[in-house]
TrEMBL record:
The organism of origin for this protein: Actinokineospora alba
GO biological process: one example: carbohydrate metabolic process
GH15-like domain mapped to chain residues: 22-286
Pfam families per record: Glyco_hydro_15
InterPro entries (alphabetical): 6-hairpin_glycosidase_sf, 6hp_glycosidase-like_sf, GH15-like
Tree of life domain: Bacteria
Protein name: Glycosyl hydrolases family 15
Length: 362
């Protein structure tokens, strides 16, 4: 990667490029593709898409956000049977749960069509969607009847299944309950739920503080003592824990101290081997967002500059930077398996836009 200025791009160029990348990656039906050039990511994730919609909303692209919310609502209602079965606690195997990603047409992947079985049972995307949808409504977005019906259905689903072990936001460790996932579920239930949902969220909050804190810090998952950069989500955007909460502040300090790579970017977690475990653009922006919210604009600006330096000549941002991987011997196997690091990653562009907005707002 070379610096932003070496390609004659300005920060304003990257903002415009990021909005364009996200818009160009939005299917006519409203779903956002995770990455248009990386076949494995040629799907619509609720998690990635919700944060893309949030970023677009912040930058005045409300019509794009609204189209995404309609896409999710239509997709959820088209597969209502899966949600109803989970609400009745007819869980069966994880393969029968509502999936974390859909095709851009809003369909569930047909069995045997993917190169490998995807770890699809993930709950965080549904909680994230509810939170972002509520934020969309608070900003003046008009919710149609189908969107409201879908939100009610997802709320009931999370009330029933929100406590279950599932794959985390990195599609890993499917037999554990993950802290960031639990935070997303709580946030979704509180943001868009009725009295029953809010009561269920309170129960899950008790679980969060009883089982997901160790030595004064939130941890990656139950039984762990490690941190994961996704723990920042608890504070931003979800507000499950205030930014200045002592446990949250300790957690963020650990993320910065333990997960900052040699070039200054933020890693997912120690021991990560995906493409060698590099520094992630979207997580670096997230840590910058946390600094901005904490009043440390200098640190936030430094991380913003790091993100901007990762821009490639096309004006695109990658998923991660692997110049200094944790496990160099593991890079080649992923390149051979799936190709070069996904670029552009829409979620990376979205979090860049969020950090720019946070600093501008401040």
């Amino acid at each position: 990667m070379t610096a932003l200025g070496e390609h004659s791009h300005t920060a304003a160029d990257l903002v415009a490029s990021s909005i364009r990348v996200i818009r160009d990656g939005q299917h006519p039906g409203g779903g956002y593709v995770a990455c248009p050039t990386y076949p494995t990511y040629g799907f619509a994730w609720l998690r990635d898409g919700a944060f893309c919609a949030y970023a677009m909303e912040l930058h005045g692209e409300q019509d794009s956000a609204a189209a995404f919310h309609r896409f999710v609502a239509n997709t959820v209602l088209d597969h209502e049977d899966r949600f109803r079965a989970a609400i009745r606690r007819e869980y069966g195997s994880a393969d029968h749960m509502p999936p974390t990603r859909y095709t851009l047409a809003g369909e569930i992947e047909a069995e045997g069509t993917a190169d490998e079985v995807w770890p699809n049972f993930q709950l965080d995307g549904y909680g994230t969607w509810l939170w972002v949808l509520a934020d969309h409504a608070h900003r003046g977005g008009v919710l149609g009847e189908r969107v409201r019906q879908a939100a009610e259905l997802v709320t009931r689903y999370l009330c029933a299944a929100g406590h279950l072990a599932c794959y985390d936001c990195w599609e890993e460790f499917g037999d554990l309950r993950h802290t960031a996932t639990l935070g997303a579920v709580i946030a979704g239930l509180e943001a868009f739920g009725d009295e029953i949902a809010v009561r269920r969220a309170a129960e899950l909050r008790e679980l969060l503080h009883a089982q997901h804190v160790r030595d004064g810090s939130f941890v990656k998952h139950v039984g762990s003592s490690a941190v994961d950069a996704s723990l920042l989500w608890l504070a931003l955007p979800f507000g499950v824990v205030p930014v200045d909460d002592p446990v949250m502040a300790r957690t963020a300090a650990r993320v910065a101290a333990e997960l900052t790579g040699p070039s200054g970017g933020t890693r997912r977690y120690l021991g990560d081997t995906f493409y060698g475990g590099g520094e992630w653009v979207l997580l670096t922006a997230w840590l910058g967002w946390f600094h901005a919210a904490s009043g440390d604009r200098e640190s936030a600006a430094r991380l913003l500059a790091w993100v901007e330096r990762q821009t490639v000549e096309s004006g695109h941002l990658p998923e991660q930077v692997i110049t200094d991987p944790q496990a160099p011997e593991r890079v080649a196997e992923w390149v051979d398996r799936w190709g070069p690091v996904a670029t552009p990653l829409l979620w990376s562009h979205a979090m860049y836009l969020v950090l720019v907005h946070a600093l501008d707002e401040g």
